[in-house]
Amino acid sequence: MKIYDCFTFFNELELLELRLETFYDIVDCFVIVEADRTHADVPKPFNFYEHVADFRKYLPKIHYIMDRSRVPYRGVGDWSLENHQRNNIIKGLEDAEPDDLIMVGDVDEFPDPATLKTLRESFTDPNKFVDFIAFYDTTPYTKGKLVPFHSGMRINNFLDLSPVGCQQNFHCYYFDWVCRHLPWSGTVIGKFKFMKKPQAFRNARESLPRIVKGGWHFSNMGGIDKVLQKMAAAVECVELSAKDAKYLDRDYVEQAMANGKYFQTAAKFVPCDVSEIKLPTLAAFLKKYPHFVRAR
After folding, report:
1. Which structural domain range is residue 141 located in?
2. What is the pTM assigned to this prediction?
3. Which of 73-82, 133-142, 179-188, 196-205 has the lowest average pLDDT?
4. Is 293 among the domain residues?
């Protein structure tokens, strides 16, 4: 049995480096799909290909899919290009077996490596358990709060029945900004035999049982230029900026980053210690890329 880490890629070169370094000894294969157009149908370079020399040591485990497809784009709010790009993950899974574990997410959604190690250990040790949040309890006693509970099943047996999602701590702009009140539903992990299309895996993430210690979502990282590039490229961001051009204004975005405000959403980010993020590779990463934490 193998573990495949599958994700779409835009221009997040630093986060990709962190991801490959973090998971290289845990997963068997990385499937990276990059398109030559943004999700708003604007031409872009193949950024991974242009920087492939920087990732030489990780190449033995990488399946890189260059997506040159031409999909009809219906304008602002159309998810067709993003969905098509994600579905091309299947091209990197030609050697996958039915019981292999497939992770489908975005490059900035990091499952907890400790949890992934537990999943890998479950291949040979049947007595491995993972804590889940499986539903919203709407009884009057719990007032709709998420109720975590032990699955009561060995994780490998559970994965024979259903994929699982990852509940992730939501960090935005910087590693030391975190949203305490709105966790992120991120990476989906399931056996290949359940995958009809990768996008269908992704679409199920809100309704699947979720791993409590599911990792971290590192959104809009890399500085003001990276944020502005995403605002002009990602479907939900283009929808926002089409309604109000201020979301493409450098001064406005810089102020949002400084104040920990995620634009029009209810998410509010507060300072945190990066030691909360249990990535053994993070300290070295931040030493190399200090602009991923807020300036003191």
Report:
1. 3-288
2. 0.92
3. 133-142
4. no
